[in-house]
Amino acid sequence: MDLDRVSPDGMGRGLRGLGLNLLVRDVEGQVALLRAIFEMGAHQVSADFAILTYGDEVLQLHSDGTYHSNPLGPVVAAVDARGPGVEIRLYDTDPDVAVTRARELGLEILQEATDKPHGLREAYIVFPDGYVWVPSQPLPA
After folding, report:
1. Counting Cβ atoms within 10 Å, is residue 19 exposed (0-12), middle (13-18) or buried (19+)?
2. Which of 82, 101, 109, 114 supports an S-S bond with 129, CB 3.0-4.6 Å?
């Protein structure tokens, strides 16, 4: 699928497996952060929508206005923070590098890069809409 040219209908028909769609207040700002910290690919970026890639994975960002006829629209409009309780894990990202980049961009670091007993080194970074991104890599055996 050519993510730079695919139509909305073509995108919808081409999606498979598990999807991640985040509602954010500032699509372009969120894209800039995700590119700067996690080096994600960005496609069809506008004020209302963006397609992002992380390795072979595809995720989408939508502005609140695009959800005017979606059942989640009124629910999201009634809350301030969007992501409490959601961890978005990026298993192929160096958490130390991500924390450095996030700090330089003024984001909140909920937890510094830490070796965990479940075999990962990971960090917790809070983005403006409250989503927590967790860059991580496996610890050496």
Report:
1. exposed
2. 82
Asked if residue 128 lies in contact with residue 118, where contact means CB atoms within 8 angstroms, the answer is no
How high is the pLDDT of residue 65? 85
Q: Rounded to an integer, what distance in angstroms lies between the CA atom of residue 38 and that of residue 3?
A: 19
* Residues 12-16, mean pLDDT to the nearest whole number: 78
Q: In CATH, which of 3.10.180.10, 1.25.40.10, 3.40.50.300, 3.40.50.2000 is domain 8-138?
A: 3.10.180.10
- Considering only CA atoms, which of 95, 4, 94, 105 is closest in space to residue 58? 4
pLDDT of residue 138: 94
Is the predicted pLDDT of residue 102 greater than 90, yes or no? yes
Give tens-digit pLDDT for 52-75: 999 999 999 999 888 777 777 777
Residue 34: in which H helix or E strand, if any? helix 27-38
Residue 117 Rama label (left phi>0; alpha psi -120 to 50; beta): alpha
